[in-house]
Specification:
Pfam family, one: Transketolase_C
Cofactor: thiamine diphosphate
Distance between the termini: 24 Å
Family: Belongs to the transketolase family.
Number of helices: 10
Protein name: Transketolase
Strand content: 15-25%
Shape: globular
Number of strands: 12
Domain Transketolase-like pyrimidine-binding: 1-163
Order of helices and strands: HEHEHEHEHEHEEEHEEHEHEH
């Protein structure tokens, strides 16, 4: 995902001179092409993420569309106050980019795992939360972000994620839900967000599960009309799966929206919803992303 992100950002920067990239002393072998082509639109701030958030806000106030990029929870949880007060509060044109979502840095322990940040950022007013599920979605979201004027969080995988969509490219709008598998007769819909999408697809195919699969590349906002249509065509209910704490993640967002839709009379039947996510705990072991997913029960 991160390679597709930086390649698309380079393309966007060739068309838009206002794009500026900040990094926190990382991204080597990934960000160099951008830095070499746009040396006056790139700055390595060092290991100072809170300061980087303030710099990003300042650059945005002068007219730039600023991306600040670091790993896991460092550009998010570490500088939540700066994101809230300097970026979201002022509706600054800043894109917070986290690489290594969920357990991607699982061997480094909880300090490097981004497993709560969706919840922390989706409650902030004015913030769009994007969770691409494969490299094509990462490219499409980067393209959207280059023309979007306002705060956005982009949650990327680390590297090597498989392409799930069969098309060469996908056309996304903010809030869209993407269909991955739909088969006639399936009455249960699975919603997956982020880089666990491929694991969900693999399990459905491997175990021949009668589930339709949808990617949720935006946790905030979520297209209500698309959600209503999916609910109405899947009477057996919904399953949400994500590599994030069960509280305040994508599954929580789906349930909240469904509650409001039901109250407002936009859906007649409140669907059954099974949420699969990280339980209310820190992982007590370290290991690979696949190992930690199994350890925390992240499977359909």
């Amino acid at each position: 995902m991160r390679t597709n992100f930086i390649n698309q950002l380079i393309e966007e920067a060739r068309r838009n001179e206002k794009i500026f990239l900040l990094v926190g002393d990382l991204g080597y072998h990934v960000i160099e092409p951008f830095a070499e082509e746009f040396p006056d639109k790139f700055l390595n701030v060092g290991i100072a993420e809170q300061n980087m958030a303030g710099i990003a806000a300042g650059l945005a106030m002068t007219g730039y569309n600023v991306y600040f990029y670091s790993i896991g929870n460092f550009p998010t949880i570490r500088c939540l106050e700066q994101i809230r007060n300097d970026i979201a509060y002022h509706q600054a044109n800043v894109k917070v980019v986290s690489v290594g979502a969920g357990y991607a840095y699982g061997s480094l322990g909880a300090t490097h795992q981004a497993t709560e940040e969706i919840g922390a950022l989706r409650v902030l007013p004015n913030m769009v939360v994007a969770t691409p599920g494969d490299p094509l979605e990462a490219r499409a979201i980067t393209k959207i972000s280059a023309s979007y004027d306002g705060p956005m969080y982009i949650r990327l995988g680390k590297a090597g994620e498989k392409t799930v969509h069969s098309e060469d490219s996908i056309d996304l709008k903010i809030g869209d839900i993407c269909s991955v598998i739909t088969r006639e007769g399936n009455q249960t819909a699975v919603f997956a967000c982020g880089n666990i999408l491929d694991a969900a697809l693999h399990q459905i195919n491997e175990e021949n599960l009668n589930y339709d699969l949808y990617s949720v590349p935006f946790v905030k906002p979520i297209n209500k009309e698309q959600l209503i249509n999916i609910v109405k065509t899947h009477p057996a209910g919904l399953i949400t799966i994500e590599e994030h704490q069960k509280s305040c993640g994508m599954g929580s967002a789906i349930v909240e929206i469904l509650n409001d839709l039901y109250y407002e009379g936009n859906i007649e039947v409140y669907p059954k919803v099974k949420r699969i996510a990280i339980p209310d705990e820190f992982a007590d072991v370290v290991g690979t992303q696949v190992f930690l997913r199994e350890h925390e029960g992240l499977k359909l």
